[in-house]
Amino acid sequence: MPQDPHPPYLSPEYKSTVLRAPARPFVAPKLDPEAVELVDPVYGHTPVGELDHDLTRQHPGEPLGERIIVTGRLLDSDGKPVRRALIEVWQANAAGRYAHPGDQHPAPLDPNFTGAGRCLTDDEGRYRFVTIKPGAYPWRNHHNAWRPAHIHFSVFGTQFTQRLITQMYFPGDPLFPYDPIMQSVRDPEARERMVARFDLDTTEPEWALGYQWDIVIRGEA
């Protein structure tokens, strides 16, 4: 039988799941769906801006690191494009540090890189971000624990109650076998779908390397 492509809520090697995983059976709340939409958090109080998708142009200077383009399509289980969907990303800088007070990793912050962006998919379900390739960073889950380079993605459906959060990795990272978060996805094919592919057609000469990564928000794949 094929393995479940989704990781279990409790993955003991990924230590924080011990505290986060539910210890009792789920009880479905009796809520009015329309009322829930009114009280759920709204991410962003302004329209998506012209430079929100370009994380390298949000400050006066150029950020340090390897400039990259990440693009792909947002699809449903039938392969149809999901149009005008909100996609958000956040990531560490090239030194492997987040622009967040909670990150005390002794790596330099970059004053020209905040590490967050967003865009809307077009009529073909395509998104596009320009950013800096993030660095690996230590995370104290176990002895000598380092996270592979990755970008966090948040994908919204037609309402804010429909949200998928996932991570995109880069091909050939030697840290894959040592990362309990990635290894919590036990199906090898599902793990492979989390890895972007280098794409020469997306790459822009003398400017930025390109990566393609499609997101399927429903279905087995």
UniProtKB/TrEMBL annotation:
One Pfam family it belongs to: PCDO_beta_N
InterPro entries tied to this protein: Intradiol_dOase_C, Intradiol_dOase_core, Intradiol_RC_Dioxygenase, PCDO_beta_N, Protocat_dOase_b
Domain Intradiol ring-cleavage dioxygenases: 70-98
Keywords: Dioxygenase, Oxidoreductase
SUPFAM superfamilies named in the record: Aromatic compound dioxygenase (SSF49482)
An example molecular function term from Gene Ontology annotations: protocatechuate 3,4-dioxygenase activity
Gene Ontology biological process terms in this record: 3,4-dihydroxybenzoate catabolic process
Keyword tRNA-binding: no
Enzyme Commission number(s) of this protein: 1.13.11.3
Recorded family membership: Belongs to the intradiol ring-cleavage dioxygenase family.
PANTHER family, per database record: DIOXYGENASE, PUTATIVE (AFU_ORTHOLOGUE AFUA_2G02910)-RELATED, INTRADIOL RING-CLEAVAGE DIOXYGENASES DOMAIN-CONTAINING PROTEIN
NCBIfam families with a match to the protein in the record: protocat_beta
Name of the featured protein: Protocatechuate 3,4-dioxygenase beta subunit
Species annotation: Thermocatellispora tengchongensis
